[in-house]
Amino acid sequence: MAAFLLKRLATLLATLLATSVIVFLVLEILPGDPALLVLGIDATDEQLAVFRHEYGLDKPVLDRYLLWIGNLLVGDFGISYAYKTPVWPLIAERLALTYPLSLSAMLLTVILALGLGVYAAAQHNKPGDLVIMGISQLGISIPNFWFGLLLILLFAVNLGWFSAGGFAGWAGGPAGAMKSLILPSISLAVVQAAILARITRSSVLEVLREDFVRTARAKGLSRQAVLWRHVLRNALIPVITVIGLQFGNLLTGTIVVEQVFSLPGLGRLIFQAISNRDIEVVKAAVILLAFTVVAVNFIVDVLYAVIDPRLKAHDV
Fold first, then answer.
1. What is the pLDDT of residues 209-265, one digit of tens each?
2. In terms of residue numbers, what domain contains 305?
3. Does 44 reside within a domain?
4. How many CA atoms lie within 13 A of 234 on its CB side?
5. Is 114 a domain residue?
6. HEC profile for the chain?
7. Nearest Cα to 143, choosing from 265, 262, 267, 253?
8. How many domains does the chain have?
9. Residue 315: pLDDT band by 50, 70, 90 thresholds?
10. Are 181 and 98 in contact (CB under 8 A)?
11. pLDDT of 96-139, one tens digit each?
C-alpha cells in the first residue's frame, strides 16, 4: 500500500509542477501591461518603472517563475495589483463560499445519481428505466446557467422561497448560508447527476450479468440485498472515476453559476481579476483550483485500492 501511495503522490506532484509551468507561461503571453492597467495611461515612465520593480515584473521570466514557486511553497501567494493586499486573504474569503457550494453540489449529484442509476438498472427496459433515462437525457442537454435562471424565476420570483441571489454569509449561522447555496447547488448538480446516473446504470447492468450475482441470488439473498451489498460495490470503479472528473467540472462551473446568482465566490474573483489583469490573483486562484482537482483524483485513486485491492496489487 505504501508503494502504491508513493507512486500516486509522485504523479500528483509532477502534475502540479507541469500545471504551474503552463499557468505561468499562458498568463505571461497574454496581451496587456499590468502596470498600465493599474496606473492608467497617464502614468509616467518613472511611475511605471517603480510599479514593475515593486512587483518584480522587470525580472527575467525564469527568475519570476522560480520566485513564484518558492513563495507558493511557503504559503506566500503574492500581492494583488488591483487591491494592494496579500492574495491569500482574498482567495480564502472566496473559498469559504466556493468549496461548500462545490461540495454540496457534488453530494447532491452522488445521492441523485446512485439512487436513480441503481433503480434504473433494477428496472431495466421497464417504464421506470425509460422514464429515468429520458429525464437524464433532458438533464444533460440543459445548460447550468439557464437552469439556474429557471430556478430563480420559479423559487425566488414566483414562490418567494429563496432569494434571487447573494450570499447570507457564515457569520449569521450555517442555516442562512446554506439556504443561499441551495439553488446554485441544484443548478450545478442537475447536469452532473444526469451524466453520473447513466454511468451508474450501465456499470450496474454490467455487473448484474456476472456469475457471482446469480450465485448470491441462489443462496437466497433478496434482489435489493444483492444490488446494494454486492453489485453496487463492484460497479463503483467507473462511477468513482467519473465523480473525480465531475468535481473538477463543478469547480469550473461555479464561475458561471456565481455570476448568475451574484455569489461572491472564487469564480467571480477570477473573472474580476482577469478583467483587471491582476495576474497574481489569477495565478494563485488557478493553481489552487488545479491542486484541488489533482488532490481529488489522488483520493479517487486511493478509493480504487480500498474498493478493489486487486487494482492496487496490479498497479504496484
1. 777 777 777 777 777 777 777 777 778 778 888 888 888 778 777 778 888 888 888
2. 89-315
3. no
4. 15
5. yes
6. CHHHHHHHHHHHHHHHHHHHHHHHHHHHHCCCCHHHHHHCCCCCHHHHHHHHHHCCCCCCHHHHHHHHHHHHHCCCCCECCCCCCEHHHHHHHHHHHHHHHHHHHHHHHHHHHHHHHHHHHHCCCCHHHHHHHHHHHHHHHCCHHHHHHHHHHHHHHHCCCCCCCCCCCCCCCHHHHHHHHHHHHHHHHHHHHHHHHHHHHHHHHHHHCCHHHHHHHHCCCCHHHHHHHHHHHHHHHHHHHHHHHHHHHHHHHHHHHHHHCCCCCHHHHHHHHHHCCCHHHHHHHHHHHHHHHHHHHHHHHHHHHHHCHHHHHHHC
7. 253
8. 1
9. low
10. no
11. 888 888 889 989 999 998 888 888 888 888 888 889 888 888 88
CA neighbours closer than 13 Å in the CB half-sphere of residue 79? 10
In a domain, residue 165? The reply is: yes
25 within a domain of the structure (yes/no): no
Which domain CATH number covers 295? 1.10.3720.10
pTM: 0.79
Residue 14 scores a pLDDT above 80: yes
Of 129, 148, 160, 157, nearest to 190 by C-alpha is 148
Q: Are 225 and 233 in contact (CB under 8 A)?
A: no
Tell me what pLDDT residue 291 has: 86
